[in-house]
Amino acid sequence: MKPTGFENILSGFSKISALKFEIWDEKGLVFCPDQGDPEKEASNPVQLSLSRMVTRIYKTQEFLYDEKENHVDLFGLPLFDNETIVGVLLAYASSPANAFRKRGPDVEDTKTLLTQIVDMIHERWEFQNESEMLVSELDRNYETLHLYSNVATQIKTLNLSNQMITRLMEEIRNNMRVDMAFSLMPDQPNYSKIVCKQELNIEDKTKFVDSLIKAIKSENKHLGPGYYIINNSLDSQTFSSIHQDRFRFLAVQIQHEIDVYGWLGIFSFNMDRIIERSQLKLLISIAEQIGVVISNTNLYHELEDFGIDIVKSLIATIEAKDLYTRGHSERVHYIAMLMARTFGMDKEKRNVLNWAALLHDVGKIGISETVLNKPGRLTDEEYTAIKKHPEKGAKIIKPLEYLAESIPGILHHHEHYNGKGYPSGLKGEKIPLNARIIAVADTFDAITSDRAYRKGRSYEKALEIINEVSGTQLDPEQVQIFNKIFNKLKTGLEMRHAE
């Protein structure tokens, strides 16, 4: 029984009525306006009569009137909470002994009075219940908004990762107060994650989630397309066979348009609450956002793959024109990336260098094969044409937006550290870092590769020449890095050549 909500009501009636009012439950006295010492009250003959009256009313669950020989008139009416008796309202007059009886106890009037008091108590309780429910609902709404804002911030990017999915499942499990939250995407295992309470008594959680999803396909009862709710597993023979204990379960499909990627779900053995409509709506919204992100990510990767194919075609076209430098772009790329990793360039910057190194000679597409493969000395006009390949390369790459950051490395890889290179005559650190790295790698491979007009030099001779032009043609800092990787580079190139 609720301990509050009726004290003021009973105190008020006790002051204006010849009756004394008390509230009892199965354990004993709960409240009376002028309650004294509980031990004395318990030994009082009137209290013993009241106790017996309470027991009878709990059995009959209806109004009772009892006239005792000690001139005490007892009245009692049950108190209900959701059709369950939770207490008894008692009334009696005992002092002076016959004052109430001389007027003649009007049982019906007293019953009416008690009924009105009980109604007031019930109204008070109902108001308290509504207030508590409102506070609880506001609290849940706040948690839902908090969860949704966190989720929206995380998944509206293309950085969908296992770590982000794990964080998302933890948010869902904690805010929805369930035992388990999971994402299951068979074709994209990196995005599949199960987050549970540590004490959850399920041995193989992956197998368990799989069995839940398989059960959906054979279960006809569902509340709408793309989502399935089981509020009590015992209501379904299919789901009750999965685990001996009762559970509730919600799964929502992760999809975008006609593409279905998997499931997002919650699970709990706690049967005190059902899965609420607000939880369903929130999970559907989260699943829709994940579906959009996956779709966009897949599209991005498809475009990236398409771009890679274009790059490969460009490289193949270059090397088909220059018979003596086949494999040059890949070797320059290999050397440049080894240098970048050695001095700790971060992943994002290495990705830019990756494309710049592979495509540094893409401008040679516009140069005649006769010039590229000429065995003798180039004329001034032919050399001028060769010198234009960095600018032509930049123009070729410019329309490919995802390669835009690689253009400086392509455009300036023939600049000299002393400012005497081309096409812009940049000097020192005004030359983009990627261009300075590629210049070292390009110089090394040019020296060691066979040409139409000469044989390639040894790796050791190339190292010697590179150190000789350090500070004039090449960046001294990048040459130092090259010296550090030389032995590893030599072994790697020899292995690649052997293959």
Characteristics of this structure?
499 residues; alpha+beta; Beta-Lactamase; Hypothetical protein af1432; five-stranded antiparallel beta sheet; 18 helices
Please tell me about this protein's structure.
This protein is an alpha+beta fold and 499 residues long. It has three domains: 7-130, Beta-Lactamase; 160-297, GAF domain (Beta-Lactamase), CATH 3.30.450.40; 322-498, Hypothetical protein af1432 (Orthogonal Bundle), CATH 1.10.3210. The protein is 53% helix and 13% strand. It has a five-stranded antiparallel sheet, with helices on both faces. It has a five-stranded antiparallel sheet with strand order 7-6-10-9-8, sandwiched between helices. β6 (180-184) and β7 form a beta hairpin. The two termini are 84 Å apart. The relative contact order is 0.05.
CATH fold call of the largest domain: Hypothetical protein af1432
First-last Cα distance: 84 Å
**Number of strand segments:** 10
What is the tally of helical segments? 18
Using the alpha-carbon principal axes, give the shape. Answer: rod-shaped
CATH architecture of the largest domain: Orthogonal Bundle
Strand content: 5-15%
As a whole number of angstroms, the C-alpha radius of gyration is 42 Å
What's the story with the biggest beta sheet? 5 strands, antiparallel
> What is the strand arrangement across the widest sheet?
2-1-5-4-3
Mean pLDDT: 81
Helix content: 40-55%
**SS class:** alpha+beta
CATH domain class name of the largest domain? Mainly Alpha
The H-level CATH homologous superfamily of the largest domain, spelled out, is Hypothetical protein af1432
